[in-house]
Amino acid sequence: MGRKSLKEVRQKEIIKGFYAVAKKEGLENTSIAKVAESMQINPSLIIHYFKSKEGLVLGLIDYNLERYEGMYNIEGGKLDTVEKLRELVNNLFSKKWNRLFDDGVYYSCYALTYRNKEIKEKYKSLHDSLRLMLKEALDEAEKNGVIKNNNHTELSETIFAVLEGAYYYLGMSSSSEEYNIKMELYKSYVLDLLKL
To answer: What angle do CA 36, 100, 62 make, to 5 degrees?
Structure first.
């Protein structure tokens, strides 16, 4: 595996800086100048790599996907036991998953999908990738005899509809007790779908 280029490293640093400022100030209040100031770099360096704030948002969506991909890594590598599939479901319905990306930044980026076709396509690609990763995990689980369901595309769509609806709704939860009770309810529904 080759080393990352300086360009890739620098772009990731800038995206992380952009995310940190957006998390603190709100995406709509984040500018290239503020990101440059927080990173103590010249704004022209950001413009060199990303051209515009829109370019930063597109990079941020890719960064978001990269972080979510890590949640599919199960100890032992393969989905060859019921316990490992449960671990994957637990990861999806965990505060760890929810904390991977700040809700305020996430939904601000999402709101841009209604005004910007390129951001909409990138966001759709992110969500399609998450569904595909789950489908592939379910394919592997079936191949290893963990589940018996051959429509993994439909199952992945349904699980993500529950997951996304849960996080959207639970973002308005008034207490951690309410949050935990409802999250367990949604997770148990998904475990029932998987017949686990």
So the answer is: 60
Proportion of the chain above pLDDT 90, given as a percent: 77
pLDDT at position 44: 96
> What's the CATH superfamily of 75-193?
Tetracycline Repressor, domain 2 (1.10.357.10)
Average pLDDT value for residue range 17-34: 96
Residue carrying structure tokens 């022209």: 44
pTM: 0.86
pLDDT at 3 over 70: no
Listed by start position, the domains of the chain span: 75-193
**88 Cβ contact list (under 8 Å, min separation 6):** 72, 74, 79, 137
Q: Which amino acid is located at 179 in the chain?
A: Y
